[in-house]
Amino acid sequence: MKRPKLAGVFLFVCCLLAYLMFVKHHFSSKADVFRPLPPQHQPSSDRTADDRPSSSSGLDFQYGIMFDAGSTGTRVHIFKFQMENTEAPKLAEETFRAIKPGLSAYADDPQKCTTGIMELLEVAQSSIPSSLWTSTPVVLRATAGLRLLPGEKADHLLDRVRALFQESPFLSREDSVSIMDGTDEGISAWITVNFLTGGLHSADSPTVGILDLGGGSTQITFSPQDEKTIQTSPIDYIRSFQVFHSTHTVYTHSYLGLGLMSARLAILGGVDAPPLGGSTELVSPCLAPEYSGRWEHADVVYTVKGQKAGEPAYEACLAKVEKVLYRKVTRASEAADADFYAFSYYYDRAVDLGAIEEKSGGAIRVSEYMDAAKRVCGSLSFGPQNPFLCLDLVYISVLLQQLGFPPHKHLQLARTINRVETSWALGATFHYVQTLRTR
Question: Do 55-180+424-437 and 192-260+322-421 show the same overall fold?
């Protein structure tokens, strides 16, 4: 009888041990299910120590490379974002480099743009950990300089850049290289500025408008507070979009051909008689009397001259500017009341006047541009150092008034906010990176 009892006890102990082993394995498996996993877009073993996500907060880092192919130069922005699943990304770092001339200068020989693009790609490679190159999108958006080119020439330039991107170690997709719509340029700049000033951090935060004066085009974008503005504005001036889980409605328009360099050419009379050869002569009352010099625009070298002394320069130049802008600009009804940031050539000419510090920026009244235009144009000595200052100031002062800004209106001028450029590049990169993460 003892042997059966011992066998029964032994069998019971074995069953108990087997059950305990099963329970232990079962719960350890469930613990694995709930363990935080590294993001799927980049294996954790490939990350550097600084770029590994925090398992407790769900944060990770994403880089984005944005090439801004403008009319006067190409700029690369390398952004490092701290990504969060439920909140807006945080900008951890930016690297910036610019080269001249713009892509459009190589319209007749696209191969020549290779050196500059490769130089900027090398800047990106030195700024991003090599383990993250294949997961970092590289994007080029061309603006007014390429919009103004014949379609075939623009396509050849973009094809060359596309080939260079595909040969690079970065993530290049079919939509990585394109010409940016002017409206998207204005919206992206609005996103950039309002992200940097805090206007997008919550639904209740007030936003600011933006004014961007580039070489080939100019943009105005702001969020209307009056329903009447939305109802009475041209239908294509009102756009709604979502950013950081909130929907925004803005008044936005891009005026192609009214950027400062394109406007210069039109005011000088170059548009009516485009040159067939390599150079042409332009004479204008917007230049100092007896001035003669050379000016290169869109790969054409112009000889520019001032008219003889006699007719008041300011009045004569004002008439030329008003003729160029006649019925080309729509007045924005709320522009006088909204807060605006202005940059690009608005900023540069204010620096030239000494109205703001070059590094820190500041505020300026529209009337300061107007008064400076009268003062500069009335001086016989404005030619040698900056021969276009009279023309530029008259153009800016008239443009702002036609957009709806009265003389007493203050504009905040900023080249950077929190050391980040006030351009469309950051806003466009936000959009592209988030699009990749949702695919």
Answer: yes
